[in-house]
Please model this.
Amino acid sequence: MLILQASEGFLFVVDCDRGRILYVSESVSQVLNCSQMDLLGQSWFDILHPKDVAKVKEQLSSLDPCPRDRLIDAKTMLPVKTDIPQSLCRLCPGARRSFFCRMKLKSNNNQIKEESDTSSSSRSSTKRKSKLSVDHKYRVIQCTGYLKSWTPIKNEEQDSESEDNLTNHSSLVAIGRIPPNVLESNVPPSLDNHPNIRHVLFISRHSVDGKFLFIDQRATLVIGFLPQEMLGTSFYDYFHHEDIPALAESHKMVIQVPEKVTTQVYRFRCKDNTFIQLQSEWKAFKNPWTTDIEYIIAKNTVFL
Model:
């Protein structure tokens, strides 16, 4: 209970095989505006955004019966062997999970009416309303937990034919919470020559033509887009039109030279159609056998 209060979220347990919600804490009403009884026994996939179902199914699969964290030696860059006692594996036979998804938000007509009536009272209210208008039927939830497997207890009435169905049960045990908005959070300023500037770093990987192949989940806390929303789209779709010529030159340069290319500070479009200041360090990775460019790695720094 103390963990839920500290995280301002809700605890839930989902069956990995069918996606059925086995348990959800009462605090879900504060996040999704629905009661505990509304969700118990329901399919989790029914309340997920359709475009997030495939991503969530990936998180529910690949259960490792005895997970081992792969530690890398900083000097040799080789994996370090770690021995985990079998007793520990039996106690926690799962794998950690952390991902973002969109869950259906139960409409609250009174709350919506109240927000619309007071939206003209101040600029801050207008800004708050514009942020809420993005995917107003769904709410972005950060899920953090682990996969858990167990062997159910067989009842005396069950016959031998059902024995096989009792062996491979697994579920996701996680806490869901609204991710913090980094742009509005009260993070202590950095102790440098620019005390009013804060930095957020996230990594992305792109094809040669600039399409997103991978993006760090930390980006969601700043730009609002989920990783699965951006995969396959071009980074030119998010650049401010006035910054595209200079960024196109940097893009051309990173393909031609082996060194890292640092872009100018440019404007990047967020999900609520506002722009943030970003600076990227691009580096092309070439296949050592064919010398063809496999992808472009981008280290992106957000200036807050």
